[in-house]
Amino acid sequence: MMKMQRGFTLIELMITLVIGVILLAVGIPSFKSITDNTRMAASANNLVMAMLLARSEAVKTGLEVYVAPLDASEGWSGGYIVGFDLSKPKNGKYDDVIADGEGFSELDGETDDEELRTFEVKANLNYTSDIGLIMYQADGTVTLDTDDISDVIAIQPTDCDGAAGKRRELKFENTGQVRVVAKDCTT
Fold first, then answer.
1. Do the Cβ atoms of 158 and 146 come closer than 8 Å?
2. Which CATH topology does 35-183 take?
3. Between 20 and 30 A from 93 (CA), which of 24, 29, 80, 160?
4. Secondary structure, 3-state, the chain
């Protein structure tokens, strides 16, 4: 009597490997697309979080709170900061904000309440905007330094090739609310 051998034949293993390679070849590009979209959404959500922090602190403290690039020469791509506008003190208890010509990274005063938070920006992302300063008032409304509420902050990957839906635009409402809209990349 012959013994039955268990296992796979060489042909069965080769067919399985070919199917696996085909699945990987199809799946890896869509996985990159998913990770790119997730990275864009996370970056836009971080910026929205900064706006919500500024708005809530302005309402809570009665002070104007700003969101501005850390470095004016790099714009929003160099990171951004949320802080109190101490040039308009409530009850005169804060010193003035010192603008160093490179943004609002140098704050002066006797308290540590001036700078609420700084945000770093992920590499390989392009932030474009004419907006240089976003100011939240004590009633929660927003003022942009461009005096044009239709201005946006756009975020897209540096290697964006016109791909659909990879660009994120932050749009501001007079009420202080921020909306994120997915758009196609621009070159």
1. no
2. minor pseudopilin epsh fold (3.55.40)
3. 80
4. CCCCCCCCCHHHHHHHHHHHHHHHHHHHHHHHHHHHHHHHHHHHHHHHHHHHHHHHHHHHHCCCEEEEEEECCCEEEEEEEEEECCCCCCCCCCCCCCCCCCCCCCCCCCCCCCEEEEECCCCCEEEECCCCCEEECCCCCEEECCCCCCCEEEEEECCCCCCCCCEEEEEECCCCCEEEEEECCCC
pLDDT per residue over 74-97, tens digit each? 888 888 989 886 565 444 333 333
Rounded to 5 degrees, what angle do the CA atoms 130, 96, 46 make? Answer: 45
- Distance CA(36)–CA(40), nearest Å, equals 6
Question: How is the chain split into domains, by residue range?
Answer: 35-183
- Reported residue count of the chain is 187
